[in-house]
Amino acid sequence: MLLRRIIWVVARGRSPLCDSATVIYPTRQLKCAGCGMVNPSLQSPHSSSSRTFSGLSTTRCGLIYRKMSENGAVPRRGKVLTLDTMNASVKKVEYAVRGPIVQRAVQIEKELKEGVKKPFDEVIKANIGDAHAMGQRPITFFRQVLALCTYPELLDDNTFPEDTKNRARRILQACGGNSIGAYSASQGIECIRQDVARYIERRDGGIPSDPDNIYLSTGASDGIVTILKLLVAGEGRTRTGVMISIPQYPLYSAALAELGAVQINYYLNEEKCWSLDISELKRAVEAARQHCNPRVLCIINPGNPTGQVQSRQCIEDVIRFAAKEGLFLMADEVYQDNVYAEGCQFHSFKKVLFEMGPEYSSTVELASFHSTSKCYMGECGFRGGYMEVINMDPDVKAQLTKLVSVRLCPPVPGQALMDLVVNPPQPGEPSYATFIKERTATLRALAEKAKMTEEILNTVPGISCNPVQGAMYSFPRISLPERAVQEAKAKGVAPDMFYCMKLLEETGICLVPGSGFGQKDGTFHFRMTILPSADKLKVLLNKVKEFHQRFTQQYS
Amino acid sequence: MLLRRIIWVVARGRSPLCDSATVIYPTRQLKCAGCGMVNPSLQSPHSSSSRTFSGLSTTRCGLIYRKMSENGAVPRRGKVLTLDTMNASVKKVEYAVRGPIVQRAVQIEKELKEGVKKPFDEVIKANIGDAHAMGQRPITFFRQVLALCTYPELLDDNTFPEDTKNRARRILQACGGNSIGAYSASQGIECIRQDVARYIERRDGGIPSDPDNIYLSTGASDGIVTILKLLVAGEGRTRTGVMISIPQYPLYSAALAELGAVQINYYLNEEKCWSLDISELKRAVEAARQHCNPRVLCIINPGNPTGQVQSRQCIEDVIRFAAKEGLFLMADEVYQDNVYAEGCQFHSFKKVLFEMGPEYSSTVELASFHSTSKCYMGECGFRGGYMEVINMDPDVKAQLTKLVSVRLCPPVPGQALMDLVVNPPQPGEPSYATFIKERTATLRALAEKAKMTEEILNTVPGISCNPVQGAMYSFPRISLPERAVQEAKAKGVAPDMFYCMKLLEETGICLVPGSGFGQKDGTFHFRMTILPSADKLKVLLNKVKEFHQRFTQQYS
User: Fold this and answer.
1) B105 with B505: CB under 8 angstroms?
2) N or C: which end of chain A has fewer CB within 10 A?
3) CB proximity list for A377: less than 8 A, separation 6 or greater
4) B255 contacts on A by Cβ (under 8 Å)
5) Which residues of A touch B176 (CB under 8 A)?
């Protein structure tokens, strides 16, 4: 009754203070002028307290509702920045790897600390490739050199091996005022870019790399977004289309949403171990040409979240396709050392491109990305990375340099770390033996855990997992009973989100639902890192197994 | 003659490979279809070699010119990404602090190394607030704790004071796996956000600060761009307008260009020591309302590049203005410890806002920014920073948290450093005395150099310099002879750029011309940091003095 007497207004488009532009629809129906939903306030977080609510509020559909007093006077002041008046592109951004399920996991951790009883003692965050958080130890050599760079007084300390000191001195000499607290050149410290170029040359069997084509970055994500930023142009049917794999790493879809680019999905072939079919690329680009201007093809190799490692032949085919269709290639190669499966080998796009001869190597535009966060280093917190650009128009390169200069420089400790990654201890140097031992142990353990993950998951009826050939994740397919799918839909959540949320609440295991990465309609997956220690991973996989059986039974 | 026989085409809008959309205007006139300039190629870097040029090229006006063979055949393959087909917003970005003059400075440094004779021995980069590069020493306590966090084995080293170890342990305990190599929460490590909130409370005389309103960032720049990103919306006349001071720090204009927001200039009053007049704000916002939707007011206090420190009264007036006009306030307060002039004091916008009572403190939306890069720390390379958001709509805050999560997290070493800045050694702790000594010495030296800069520059006829009340720069006005202005214009460069370039070539001193920051038409300035050591700064100022006299004579 009381509710009925309340008069609501829907204010759209601008701050209510800008009277000239405020459009006010008085309505008793509470029908949203944007999405047409009737009574959207019932779905708003304020619905239960709508009678006492007196300011501005927003509904899920994104409109602003403002309560008027009975005499129709509108309160004088509202917020400048609301869901309704904010950047619409930002609203479209989604990033499942740190989405609602992770927020709930953080909440549960707090509840556990406060003594709330749960059927488990700890939350295990297997949602993100965060090696150190999962107990992986940093490489001693890296941290010693970084400590020396941070506090150069330690250069007099005899406990540090001589080669760590030489490295630190070399890095410091390249810094303004010999301090990693100085800004570097925006493209990155020159001698580090030279080291990166030499690393690429060694990796690619001597194919030359030009330090001028290397840009250090704040993690690989920063590099990827920067290149996309250059590429996005046009309006309507001429708007830039960017081809990304499905499943994908959601940085891509998030960046495209923010930049307002057109996302073009190409599906990886789950039946063939998540391989890439050129016919699917062709289908996708041709369909996209109807409504946008496809200009970019993104590849993640080794794959995230899908763990496949591309064959040399496949990479060649992709390059030929990109050349034929006039696409700029972006190769996300941050897992280049994470290759486990027998018969698999990492081939960089750069190397294959140059081996294909000048017809390709002098024309196809390519940007390749690497990072300090993955492989055997796992140094995510330092936000180190680099990109190499090949065949980029020199004028565009000047624009790129200008663009990165606005943010001054990538974090210098991350740059220093990137230097150590591309230029590790050499045979004969004091730190060599320990470095090799540590690196080998980490990569061997990852290979074992990749195998174990596949094996245990494939013993579960209703779960089928492709071999984890590389990277750091399994992405198994899960069968969900129809009744569970219906219940999830009734709740308005994706069925695999429903599954993962239940898993989290019952076992404390935090995974990311496949819907956060994209998947073929009607299929369901989750992504799970292989990073926990072998013992812990085994327990975790068996808990997933038990949960899946329980879940299946419950909803059958 | 030969030139006449060449047929040029102007290709616009898309890659030449997309035949369907390529628009080709054959023309003998070389009139640019974009800017209407006739014979733009004459101003292009390729003009002198146009007869031998055979690929794609670009003119200053941003169009692509492609030479056709005499029979009119267009070469088959062009670049996907060219000046013509790239993101037009990125092209509009300018960032003078690292612009052409700095690029030339780097070149000259290389030439000096190669033994090229110059009238000077070294390039002095007084263009950027890069304290360590200018010889300022890092704070020992900060670097000790960071070294301990980086290489925790040092916790067993007896040469580190106990309080540095306690701090390192506390930070490490807040990191995943006790490693600064783990990702943190996207908003920043929780206990660091708590420390920031407590710092703000102490600074602002007890006005409460909520850690949930604190977001750690990759330097202040990152925070500023992120908030602007949320605020930019609308099209045409409803497009978000953002008010920035002129002169301004060019991060603002660069970010607005990239985001496609409308830049609304308000001019600081040079005659009144670069103070801010509310009547000028009013003029600017009213004029802007004709063509856009002014929603944001950016303030830099203490000022960059202008060095003024705002009075409490002025801040109150600005807040009242923002409230009345419905503007979101962005307060760039990265120089909050850099206040030198007698009678001047730093007042945070947050504090003044809350002292104005609930009418303002519960309504005006404010984001305030701080950083590890300036003040007495000068740790630019670590890219540490934070922002505090006040009265932000909770739904928008959720969007902000989502947006920052896409980039995973700010660099953790920078977060740790921010923690130490907001929570320095306390009386009674072993590191306290040294910390205070170092901080005081740095700030005292800066105050002396601020004074010296003003005094020496004001002895030069034709240079007039306002007091450097705060921040790290002088921004003196320079009189340029009419003949110099004409010569610069004939060369197509801004007169103060012409002046600064000549100064660089003749003395090795690298300054940024006022045109890079914006200035009233017909006035000319440069920005110069006060960061070099007192001895060096004196030499530098006297060199500028001599140069200015020589320059004036030469062109009079």
Assistant:
1) no
2) N
3) A131, A138, A139, A142, A417, A421, B181
4) 406
5) 130, 132-133
Residues in chain A: 556
Q: Identify the residue among B179, B187, B418 best suited for mutation to test binding to A, counting A beta carbons within 10 A and taking the highest.
A: B179
Instruction: Examine the domain organization and report whether A43 and A119 are in the same domain.
Output: no
Tell me which chain A residues have a C-beta less than 8 angstroms from the C-beta of B134: 177
Compute the average pLDDT of residues A17-46: 32
- Tokens 């047929």 identify what position? B7
Q: Are residues B413 and B493 in the same domain?
A: no
What six digits make up the tokens of B286? 């009213």
Nearest to B242, CA basis, from B335, B348, B322: B322
Spatial separation of the C-alpha atoms in residues B170 and B165, rounded to whole Å: 9
Please state whether beta strands B64-67 and B8-12 pair in parallel, antiparallel, or not at all (unpaired): antiparallel
Beta carbons within 10 angstroms of residue A538's beta carbon: 15
Cβ–Cβ < 8 Å for B233, B203: no
Q: What is the mean pLDDT of chain B?
A: 86
Looking at B368, B391, B422, the residue that finishes a domain is B422
Beta carbon pairs, A and B, within 8 Å = 320
Q: Show contacts of B447-455: CB within 8 Å, 24+ apart.
A: B447/B340, B448/B534, B449/B530, B449/B531, B449/B532, B449/B534, B449/B537, B450/B307, B450/B340, B450/B341, B450/B474, B450/B530, B451/B340, B452/B534, B452/B537, B452/B538, B452/B541, B453/B528, B453/B530, B453/B537, B453/B541
Nearest Cβ partner for B182 among A79, A219, A381: A381
Determine, for residues B133 and A182 on separate chains, whether the beta-carbon distance falls below 8 Å. Answer: yes
Domain holding A244: CATH number? 3.40.640.10
Residue B361 with chain A: CB contacts under 8 Å: none
Yes or no, beta carbons of B407 and A255 under 8 Å apart:
no
How far apart are alpha carbons A20 and A14 in whole angstroms? 9
Torsion of Cα atoms, B422 then B428 then B429 then B434, to 10°: 80
Closest-CA residue of chain A to B160 = A154
Q: What is the pLDDT of residues B364-407, one digit of tens each?
A: 999 999 999 999 999 999 999 999 999 999 999 999 999 998 88
Who contacts B130 (Cβ-Cβ below 8 Å, separation ≥6)?
A176, A182, A183, B378, B380, B529, B531
Among chain A residues, CA nearest to B46: A395
Residue-by-residue DSSP string for B332-356: E-TTTT-B-STT-----HHHHHHHT
Mean pLDDT of A128-139: 94
ipTM confidence: 0.85
In-domain check, residue A271:
yes
A348, A293: one domain: yes
- Asked if the Cβ–Cβ distance from B81 to A230 is below 8 Å, we say yes
Range of the domain at B64: 2-86
Q: Residues of A with CB below 8 A from B130's CB?
A: 176, 182-183
- Rounded CA gap, A290 and A299, in Å? 22
- Residues 6+ away with beta carbon under 8 Å from A202: none
CA–CA distances in Å: residue B366 to residues B202, B224, B428: 19, 12, 36
Number of domains present in the structure of chain B? 3
What is the reported pLDDT for B77?
Answer: 60
B397 and B492 housed in the same domain: no
Q: Give A125's strand partners.
A: A510
CB atoms under 10 Å from CB of B56, counted, come to 19
All residues at 6 or more sequence positions from B552 whose CB lies less than 8 Å from its CB, including other chains: B461, B462, B479, B481
Question: Nearest CA to B376 among B420, B344, B427?
Answer: B420
What is d(CA A30, CA A8) in angstroms, rounded to the nearest whole number?
7
Q: Which residues contact A120 (CB under 8 A, 6 or more apart)?
A: A506, A507, A508
B311 is a domain residue: yes
A178: left (phi over 0), alpha (psi -120 to 50) or beta: left
Give kind and range of the element (H or E) at residue A66.
strand A64-67
